[in-house]
Specification:
The chain is mainly beta. The chain has one helix and ten strands; from the N terminus they run ββββββββββα. The strands form two sheets. A five-stranded mixed β-sheet has the order 5-2-1-8-9, with no helix packed on it. The protein has a five-stranded mixed β-sheet with strand order 4-3-6-7-10, with no helix packed on it.
Length: 152
């Protein structure tokens, strides 16, 4: 039996993604192809920044109740499914695309942390981590406009 809790992602309104039981990796481009790097050491629960303002990116450096940014009610249309190859979708996994979204696979339920309502539980979901998406918590590509950049 695994020590890891059931895969779960909670979206804190105006705050981070609270992730339980889902391993975290980074994506990097190798010879023109996206590849997974080694898993990051996160423990069983961790908070991923959604506003882009944390000094400890990709992790949120604030404490509860967070209040990282003013999150408006989604006004944009749901994005078309993004075409991407990694992670493979066979198991719950999160991969961080450099200067881009959180890529979640494996049908992990994404719930509003306040209401518990399931936001999405698709097989492959791209989640915002720049804070500018008009369809939070989903990524709509706004990171390309606001020029979201992670520190190296």
């Amino acid at each position: 039996m695994s020590d890891r809790p059931a895969p779960n992602v909670r979206v804190v309104p105006g705050g981070p993604l609270i992730v339980e039981g889902v391993p975290l990796t980074r994506l990097e481009r190798r010879d023109g192809v996206w590849a997974l790097t080694a898993a990051l050491d996160t423990g069983t629960e961790y908070a991923l920044c959604r506003c882009g303002g944390s000094s400890g990116l990709p992790f949120c450096d604030r404490e509860e109740p967070y209040g990282c940014f003013d999150e408006d009610t989604p006004t944009g249309a749901l994005p078309k499914p993004f075409a991407w190859e990694l992670p493979d979708g066979r198991r719950p996994e999160i991969a961080l695309k450099p200067n881009g979204p959180v890529r979640l696979t494996g049908g992990v339920p994404i719930r509003d942390a306040t209401s518990g309502v399931v936001v999405d539980a698709g097989e492959r979901v791209s989640l915002c981590r720049c804070g500018a998406s008009r369809c939070q918590p989903l990524c709509d590509g706004s990171h390309k406009i606001v020029v979201y950049r992670e520190p190296v």
